[in-house]
Specification:
Alpha-Beta Plaits; five-stranded antiparallel β-sheet; 10 strands
Length: 210
């Protein structure tokens, strides 16, 4: 066996995660969980959409309860369809391996990179398309009436950092809600509405992080 083949075999034997590539960016963790159940894939304990700067990348990370399940899971996942697409499935030792060099060592939540963007999936809403100079106080006013999560030493609304060497005329914020139902209610209220209800103002895009 060649050295490369030996390393690949070791990776498959020890891997406790599987990365799915080529997914529709509209796919949610629940879509993937449904496909996992239909394909009778055993040993999957968690499914997370993989984000970069709080945007879905078309990838997802599956956490396996034991590496013993990984080989068969990879085989089954390569022969299933998720929202009409057949993904590429690859075993990995850790999601950290997927980060760029510039991203390593930083908390996921600070950058919006990694599985579920480093936040609580289903209860966090990304608000984008806001004017570049929008202050965090304006967002708190915008979400008045919604039940925000009480976070120890962490704000319920945070500014999403712009990636290094990038420029944007718009701002992005993350809002941490008390429950999944409250996150869904916020999206229904704000998605594709004009900022401050002003005609000609930018349209807000509100998306739940999965």
């Amino acid at each position: 066996m060649s050295k490369a083949a030996s390393l690949a075999a070791d990776s498959l034997r020890d891997a406790t995660h599987i990365v799915l590539r080529g997914l529709p960016k509209a796919a949610t963790s629940r879509d993937i969980q449904r496909a996992v159940m239909q394909a009778d894939v055993k040993g999957v304990s968690e499914v997370s959409i993989y984000y970069r700067h709080f945007r879905p990348t078309g990838k997802a990370v599956l956490t396996m309860s034991l590496p013993d399940f990984t080989r068969n899971a990879v085989h089954r996942l390569q022969n299933t369809r998720i929202l009409g697409v057949r993904p590429e499935a690859e075993p990995i030792l850790s999601p950290e391996k997927m980060l760029r060099k510039s991203e390593k060592g930083k908390p996921f939540e600070a950058t919006g990179d990694g599985p579920s963007a480093g936040v609580i999936p289903g209860k966090t809403v990304s608000l984008s398309g806001l004017p570049g100079r929008t202050g965090i106080d304006s967002i708190y006013k915008l979400v008045t009436g919604f039940k925000l999560e009480s976070r120890k030493n962490q704000p319920s609304v945070q500014v999403c950092l712009i990636p290094e060497k990038k420029f944007s005329l718009f701002s992005r914020f993350c809002v941490h809600l008390e429950s999944e139902g409250e996150a869904q209610r916020l999206v229904r209220a704000l998605h594709m509405t004009h900022y401050k209800d002003l005609e000609g103002a930018p349209l807000i895009k509100a998306e739940i992080i999965y």
